[in-house]
Fold this protein.
Amino acid sequence: MVKVLIVGGVAGGASAAARLRRLDEKAEIVMFERGEFISFANCGLPYYIGDRITKRSALTLQTPERFRARFNVDVRNFTEVISINKREKIVTAKNLKTGEKYVETYDKLILSMGAEPIKPNVKGISSSRVFTIRNIPDTERIKKHINEMAPASAVIVGGGYIGLEMAENLKLAGLDVTIVELSDHLIAPLDIEMAADVHRYIMDKGIKLILSNGVKEIEEFDGNLTVKLNDGEIIKTDMAIMAVGVRPETELAKAAGIKVNDKGSIVVNEYMETSEKDIYAVGDAVEVTHFVTGEKAFIPLAGPANKQGRIAADNICGIRSKYKGTQGSSVLKIFDMTVAMTGINERTAKALGLNYDKVYNYSASHASYYPGATYMSIKTIFEKDTGRILGAQIVGFDGVDKRCDVLATAIRAGMTGFDLAELELCYAPPFSSAKDPVNMVGFVIENTLRGLVKNYHWHDVKSLPRDGSVILLDVRTPAEVARGRIDGFINIPLENLRENIDKLDKSKPVYVLCRSGQRSYIACRILMGHGFDAYNLSGGYQLYESVISDMQLFSS
């Protein structure tokens, strides 16, 4: 009978324990968790604070008692493993209620310690009014503070997933909220132009946004906090939440001589085996291989953690299962807006020197003639040579998660833009269009790769010559142009292009734009049919205006 010890009872650890029992009814399984709770829904914590989830019990997917009863696992919560003796194959555990220390032998050991919140090294971080959010006790402390102290304002330090979810829920709870983010845009995996609409939307919801700035120090005086930023700005607030990210919690592994990388993540192979025989590691504490690039990475996500726990269990039970990498598929709700991404972003593609290209699409969530359609912005990264999809980012409202899931599946399957064009996806007017947004991505990539259209992008507009050596053409309606235009572009509406085409100099390249890139594509095909060298603004004026306005706002 094999004896398996599991350190950590959330996500990967709980998944491993359940899978082990399903595969081996006779195995002795002991799961240590230093906290009170196991298998809790940490992604739901901000929504409990904002009372979108009203009962704490909804966050505890399994209680220790139910887990013991269902899986016959010896669950020891309030117990911390403090050392590992890999030579003797024993661990030393400490009961945090009684202080008792004892040893436990193992045949196989699974480490699933997760990650811990990063606390910046700034003065005042230890104030009772400064919080982190990673587990249920963190959540209870924040909720207790709000209920007892009735704060009117809060500063969120960090503009990632947790930071934005907390900002939303505190705003819904009636607080004035300020987000402070060190980077030049929110949500690090997004490229900057895709974050622009997010910035505008958040500010429209009444949240103050401070970018390219960090916290220098925090002072508490007379029950209030003074948050001093790097540029000298001072914010007075009632509470602060640190949401600057997480780091792998691997001190136990390091002390045991288990190999970690230079960022502290446990090094594992595709079978979730560590450098030490019979010791496995899963979840946010481990180094993963990025599925798209093959590079080593730190990508703390619940879905991969659960899969890794299952794979570790498989291998312990003699099923040779491999973890084939993480591609970073994630989705975020911000009030009514949805932000989703998968694969790599352009910054990564550029940093790795990949031969890539990109396209932008604006598509309706469902048939535009059916009431309630909203538009989503899609950016897709693909290989120039093959058309293979490398990454996608989507910002919108309805149907964003569905399209990103399709694109995530396409990446996993090694599909190309040509494949996306051929996909047969579900269609009815309330749900989609006959040409689904994913199909549209495929059509644009297909046209690009076949040379049916040549694109230029929002960041190219500024450098286009205004000396008459090229033609800058706006094919929107006069009413659209009156609401906003780009300097140097002449206006000939698409419907009037053919009758005015003789007025254009065929010897000059033509750079065309419309609102979204669709009409300008048609214009480019007309121009190319008449012998012009034409280029289409991918994403159109809508994307350009969003990015430029955002940059101007945060540079002032």
Observations:
- The first strand starts at residue 3 and ends at 7.
